[in-house]
Design brief:
The chain is α/β, with parallel strands linked by helices and about 500 residues long. Helix content is about 40%, strand content about 15%. It has 16 helices and 18 strands. A hairpin with a 2-residue loop joins strand 2 and strand 3. The protein starts with 20 loop residues before the first strand and ends with a helix. The chain binds nicotinamide-adenine-dinucleotide. The site of nicotinamide-adenine-dinucleotide has 29 residues, from helix 7 and helix 8.
């Protein structure tokens, strides 16, 4: 046994009080779905977790009707102060049940417990606390006087951050006075259903939040429903395109948070130790199932060999295995389908001439796993430099000058995020200014804060989540421009002349 070997440290599953079957959460109660139920499994060992109801069109109809009733009878009539109290209550209950939620998330999604426990769930609580604070202050959000809610929001989310994406969607919608029908991803419905129990515990008025489980057809029924006023979608660019078409020509407001292929740019004067940790966090956090992952490493040619060597050393120390083990760094790939996609794109990478290196880890016998992998000698035209792999695979490219780095970073149909590593503040500002990405991190990566807007350029989608920009997506624009700059400018002018 080497001195760096760890004893197993699995988190207990005893805290989970799972039901065998979960229904749809409509009008404040669980009820059976009319569609074909399906199983949710643990991607770490393919064992059955629970049977999940599937909502058909009639169920979605009921959920939207429940949301409409709740909107008209209670939620839109309630003061912001009272809505805020419910949101604070939900945030506190998430904190109280944090361990249970973290275990459920790691079990259903495959992500390491240290991430669900220390990142996902604390951020979920933070999102509800943050928007709870806005609920009675909408007049001061710079979105015009007396901003109004939209009505019923139909929200569809992916599997990579199941509970966090739910929080990003539900917290601003409720703070702004809307009611919700949300569809979780079919491979990760569990934490949303436990969240529905939290809503019961919080005594949230029935129908304010409805959760309909099912596959893509259920999502399509939600976004196409004629009585939905706002559609918010996070997921793949392909499905996002379909939704944009379905919503075109209606008066539904739309937010799309789609894919990414972020450049993480490392200049030769960067603090290398920190940059190595940042690169690892940028692409291997959550098995690379991160829309804003730093999946393209752009490293200045003079330090390429040093960075790649150090990265390989660092990756060799990462522990892959049981997501519920507190020492695990790399968990399971969420589904067989996703694993096949990662394998296929990696195979194409080798075929196109890039050089593949994978960490030498023991892969468990059952479940879906992929060792952390680096491709060097990658050309900008390679598929692994262009397509979103959405897995623990890093493509390394080089550059010589800042201008070349910027050009290569922007050479993508996406534009969600980017990272810059350098010792010079002036270079950070100059480069960040020219990157076509919604979020640019400097000397860090994958940092999230509810007060900070997040969203994409180009094929990464449109609209922003987080911050007061995230509220704008759930309010009627009125006389204000999005972001409220016009109104603010007018107010400022008045103050000056007064
Ligand atoms: P996906 O688009 O296949 O599925 C996302 C959700 O949409 C699921 O709930 C799915 O059931 C539903 N869906 C599928 N077809 C639908 C349809 N026709 N109409 C309505 N809903 C439909 O994506 P995925 O594989 O679950 O998630 C991975 C993708 O999500 C990646 O591309 C990733 O970059 C993106 N993502 C983006 C962000 C962001 O904020 N930009 C965050 C997380 C994930």
């Amino acid at each position: 046994m080497s001195f760096l070997e760890y004893a197993p440290a699995p988190e207990s599953r005893a805290i989970l009080k799972l039901r065998d079957e979960y229904g749809l959460f409509i009008g404040g109660e669980f009820r059976p779905g009319r569609g074909q139920s399906f199983a949710t499994i643990s991607p770490a060992d393919e064992t059955h977790i629970a049977t999940i109801a599937s909502a058909d069109d009639a169920d979605v109809d009921d959920a939207v009707a429940a949301a409409r009733r709740a909107y008209e009878k209670t939620w839109s009539k309630m003061s912001g102060r009272d809505r805020g109290k419910y949101l604070f209550r939900i945030a506190r209950l998430v904190q109280e049940r944090a361990r249970e939620l973290a275990v459920a998330e790691s079990l259903d999604n495959g992500k390491p417990i240290k991430e669900s426990r220390d990142v996902d769930v604390p951020l979920v609580a933070a999102w509800f606390f943050y928007y709870a604070g806005w609920a009675d202050k909408l007049d001061y959000a710079g979105l015009g006087p007396d901003p109004r809610s939209l009505g019923v929001a139909g929200q569809v989310i992916p599997w990579n951050f199941p509970l966090l994406m739910l929080a990003w969607k539900i917290a601003p919608a409720l703070a702004a006075g809307n009611t919700v029908v949300l569809k979780p991803a079919e491979t990760t419905p569990l934490s949303a259903l436990i969240f529905a129990e939290i809503l019961q515990q919080a005594d949230l008025p029935p129908g304010v939040v409805n959760i309909v489980t099912g596959a893509g057809a259920t999502g399509a029924a939600v976004v196409r429903h004629p009585d939905v006023n706002k559609v918010a979608f996070t997921g793949s660019t392909g499905v996002g395109r379909e939704i944009a078409k379905a919503v075109a020509g209606t008066d539904k407001k739309l937010t799309l948070e789609l894919g990414g292929k972020a450049a993480n740019i490392v200049f030769e004067d960067a603090p290398i130790d920190q940059a190595i940790e940042g690169i690892v966090n940028g692409i291997f956090f959550n098995q690379g199932h991160v829309c804003c992952a730093g999946s393209r490493l752009l490293v200045q040619e003079s330090i390429h060999d040093e960075v790649v060597d150090r990265l390989k050393n660092r990756l060799s120390t990462l522990r892959l295995g049981d997501p519920l083990d507190k020492n695990t760094d790399i968990g399971a790939i969420n589904s067989r389908e996703q694993l096949d996609r990662i394998r296929e794109l990696s195979r194409i990478g080798e075929e196109e001439g890039a050089e593949r290196w994978s960490a030498d880890c023991v892969i468990p016998d059952s479940g879906f796993w992929f060792a952390p992998t680096i491709f060097t000698n990658v050309q900008a035209s390679h598929r692994i430099a262009r397509d979103e792999i959405f897995g623990p695979v890093l493509s390394v490219l080089t550059f010589r000058t800042p201008a070349e780095a910027i050009e290569k970073a922007n050479n993508t149909p996406y534009g969600l995020s980017a990272g810059i590593w350098t010792d010079k503040g002036s270079r950070i500002l100059a480069v960040a200014d020219r990157l076509r990405a919604g979020v640019v991190w400097a000397n860090t990566f994958n940092r999230f804060d509810p007060a900070s807007p997040f969203g994409g350029y180009k094929e990464s989608g449109y609209g922003r989540e987080g911050g007061r920009h995230g509220l704008a997506a759930y309010l009627k624009s009125g006389s204000a421009s999005v972001g409220g700059r016009r109104v603010e400018a007018r107010r400022a002018k008045k103050e000056v002349s007064a």
